[in-house]
């Protein structure tokens, strides 16, 4: 087993809500974590493979991605897809996968 880690921050200093991060393997395995504040994140004890990271900030605190509303207007929650795949090998932690959620 191995791990993926890094830091997470938000370019919008007024934004609130927990961060939901999902690591998806090319072999179909998924891992999810919730981070309450900006700072470090870590997926521990994950299987080897090629992973993509997805993230959204849960501004309405319902613990799921919200698409927003047309009337009254409520914007969708901000979503981010890490721009590169992450190769995870057994016993080789993959560090420094830093995420800055854009405005």
Helix-strand layout with pairing:
Elements: E1 2-10, E2 18-25, E3 30-35, E4 39-46, E5 49-58, E6 79-81, E7 86-88, E8 99-101
Parallel strand pairs: 1-8
Antiparallel strand pairs: 1-4, 2-3, 2-5, 5-6, 5-7
Describe this structure in a few short sentences.
The protein is an all-beta fold and 103 residues long.
For the structure shown, list the relevant keywords.
103 residues, mainly beta, three-stranded mixed sheet
Structural class from helices and strands?
mainly beta
Distance between the termini: 35 Å
Average pLDDT, rounded to a whole number, is 94
**Global Rg:** 14 Å
Shape: elongated
**Biggest sheet overview:** 5 strands, antiparallel
According to DSSP, the number of beta strands is 8
What series of H and E elements makes up the topology?
EEEEEEEE
Strand content: over 45%
Point out poorly predicted stretches.
Answer: none
Number of helices: 0
Helix content: under 10%
Overall description:
The protein is an all-beta fold and 103 residues long. It contains no helices and 8 strands. The chain has strands at 2-10, 18-25, 30-35, 39-46, 49-58, 79-81, 86-88, 99-101. The model has no long low-confidence stretch (mean pLDDT 94).
């Amino acid at each position: 087993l191995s791990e993926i880690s890094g830091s997470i921050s938000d370019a919008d200093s007024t934004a609130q809500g927990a961060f939901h991060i999902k690591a998806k393997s090319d072999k179909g395995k998924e891992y999810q974590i919730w981070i309450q504040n900006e700072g470090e994140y870590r997926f521990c004890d994950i299987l080897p493979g090629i992973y993509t990271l997805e993230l959204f900030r849960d501004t309405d605190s319902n613990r799921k991605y919200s698409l927003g509303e047309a009337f009254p207007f409520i914007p969708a929650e901000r979503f981010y897809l890490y721009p590169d795949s992450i190769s995870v090998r057994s016993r080789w932690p993959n560090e420094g996968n830093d995420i800055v959620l854009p405005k």
